[in-house]
């Protein structure tokens, strides 16, 4: 009956059978018979199944259309984008740090990463000024701009930071200017805190859990002592003097896969100093990793269980106080990905690019102590591929183009991949520090597709259990109750969130 093989991905949950239609980026609930037929498990088709499939085709689903050429939509305007719409520059004011953290990408003692090591290099003010000027000159189309400070430990260069803040304020007339800093918080003395408060500088603080877990990895250089107590002392001082400012800081949590995740989660839920503060969690970076990290065999189970508790809370079956803030981001990801109509289209274009790569330097331009540009602070500074220009000469557009279109190294695989739209691989996954390679990029594909499939299943399971995204505060898209109904009528086309 189907002359052309549709570009789809079949999957099932405990409550139903689904087809992810790649062209429309919609999830369709189908009967088991249609699922088996579309999944190639049977060649026989009954009348009711034929009607169901025909209705899907009539409604614009089951196209076999695929992207014909890998080309990022921003490619044609790349020069204009980088010339006038920059949003942020992150200044690496120093490469030195007063801590030595085992999973830090810059810690030479760890030997885990292909990256530069902590050293005494610092940024001089002339280079910093040129970086700030570059941001302002290349952001005519951006009303809001941000100057970030990064290291090493940036507060080792507090006097330089103050000069940069004052200079940026003088030069950025007519712009909404903000500042941010990523710090280990061990150097937050009274003078520093007062200045950060007075200039409303956004603080992102590294904190990995209770004392015994945090101190396992975040130790002072030289003494080897843990940094937890010093951080808490500084947090108490900051909270006491500037309680409103304290509420706006962010704790950046690197979750140790060898630790007891339940212990980490309970710390951030219950410890008075941190429980009411916004938290963002990540696992240790796998980009540029030379030696894999060990993982506690119970870690994944504990980690997933906390996500399960988030779902119970959203379904009204568990009080919020029992839910880890570290895992709430996952629900937000599901919501933004699968209920956002802006991601839905009538079909794939002749050219396109998998999700993942940002426009290099446009949102998070990173400048090292020597004035060399990188797409962001998360790529390797030892990589020739990622050096996309410098503050004297501007952007190397050829390198920026290659990073933006990283999927060209795996073009045929990407054009035929069902996860095309939701791929999250940035160029760092393909970077061997010398070139962008298909081998490195394809190696990550299995994990990427598994994660997307888990998200699809989790999203549909929430719908099956009666979750109404329309009841969320500030929903991304307003859905009616009727649209959220998922019926078992096998002859009806059903989209998760929309009933056709």
UniProtKB/TrEMBL annotation:
Listed SUPFAM superfamilies: Radical SAM enzymes
Cofactor list: [4Fe-4S] cluster
InterPro entries for the chain: 4Fe4S-binding_SPASM_dom, Aldolase_TIM, Cys-rich_pep_rSAM_mat_CcpM, MoaA_NifB_PqqE_Fe-S-bd_CS, rSAM, rSAM_sf, Sulphatase_maturase_rSAM
Record has Iron as a keyword: yes
A GO term for molecular function: metal ion binding
Presence of the UniProt keyword Iron in the record: yes
Pfam family, any one: Radical_SAM
Residue ranges constituting the Radical SAM core domain according to the UniProt record: 81-318
Keyword terms of this UniProt record: 4Fe-4S, Iron, Iron-sulfur, Metal-binding, S-adenosyl-L-methionine
Bilayer-spanning residue ranges: none
Name of the molecule in the record: Cys-rich peptide radical SAM maturase CcpM
Taxonomic lineage of the native organism: Bacteria, Bacillati, Bacillota, Clostridia, Eubacteriales
Gene: ccpM
